[in-house]
Design a protein that fits this description.
Strand content: 15-25%
Number of domains: 2
Oligomer: single chain
Helix content: 25-40%
CATH topology of the largest domain: Alpha-Beta Plaits
Largest sheet: 9 strands, mixed
Length: 297
């Protein structure tokens, strides 16, 4: 990856989002549609592509939706005047496939590196997990979440990649309440996450709410990382990267939580849960579209 733009280019940071089910993950993979590959093709069609001109802040697995990710793009100097006026957004979005939207762009200094973020905020709708209870003990769920906050070895709560340090600091892990006070999931913040970490955290705390596992199981998973303990991995379609914060993202978004008072209740009959999941996915997708439209208009 190039460390800086060429002398005849400018560096831009863009905020963008996408529906997880429209792409096979974020990173380029041969022969399949990915987020990074779609951004690259849009830049190629516009004649703005150069090797190393694109760097994404966060990668996501297949099925994971994103309200706000960040990327830095080195663009030809000739297009710099169109960045603030919205022409750049229209040009890029006109060349992107359905399911991905670039909704903010700003010029930054030549040395800006977009991966140096100080907070990533994920929301997970635990209602999509099949054993999520109708009546949730909020105090118990809060206690489960609080166990995961702080500096821990997350070997048992991630898919650990070779050479990766399993120790991470979770700054916030708390219940996510709908606008009308219903517990619908969890809200998790950290500077950096491990592969599958949020989905495994979601499964662990959901398990406490449902009785599938206990608070002591979470304690053991964290305090004894050398002893394998699998507390499950929640499905990807409940996960959303809500926002990223770094020095260049200030003002791009206000950080407010979404209005979810219109989210439907999961059915009491577990046999109907699979059918209801289709509605839940549609609601999550609608939430994203509303967020993007607010910022584009």
């Amino acid at each position: 990856m190039n460390g800086g733009p060429s002398l005849d280019s400018v560096r831009v940071v863009v905020a963008f989002g996408y529906h997880g089910d429209a792409f096979h993950g974020s990173q380029v993979q041969p022969g399949i549609r990915t987020v990074e590959g779609s951004l690259r093709r849009a830049l190629e069609r516009l004649g703005w592509w150069s090797e190393g001109c694109l760097e994404m802040s966060s990668r996501t697995d297949a099925g994971v939706s994103v309200r706000m990710n960040l990327a830095r793009i080195d663009l030809p100097s000739s297009v710099s005047e169109s960045i603030e006026g919205g022409n750049l957004l229209r040009a890029v979005n006109n060349n992107l496939p359905i399911g991905i939207v670039v909704w903010k762009a700003r010029m930054v200094s030549r040395g800006t590196r977009i991966r140096h973020s100080y907070s990533r905020h994920y929301l997970y709708r635990t209602e999509v997990i099949s054993d999520w209870p109708q009546e949730v003990d909020v105090n118990l769920l809060s206690e489960a979440c609080s166990l995961l906050e702080g500096h821990h070895d997350f070997t048992n709560l991630c898919r650990l990649e070779e050479g990766k340090d399993p120790v991470r600091t979770v700054d916030v892990c708390e219940p996510w309440l709908s606008s009308d006070g219903r517990v619908i999931g969890i809200s998790v913040k950290s500077q950096a996450f491990l592969w599958n970490q949020v989905r495994r955290i979601a499964s662990a705390v959901s398990g406490v709410a449902s009785g599938r596992n206990t608070l002591d199981d979470i304690r053991s998973a964290l305090e004894k990382p050398e002893v394998p303990l699998d507390l499950g991995r929640a499905p990807s379609d409940g996960l959303m990267l809500w926002s990223i914060e770094n020095e260049e993202s200030e003002g791009m978004t206000d950080g407010a939580m979404p209005d979810t008072s219109w989210f439907s209740l999961p059915p009491r009959d577990s046999r109907e849960h699979t059918r209801w999941l289709a509605l839940a996915r549609l609601e999550m997708a609608t939430l994203l579209e509303r967020e993007w439209l607010k910022r584009l208009n």
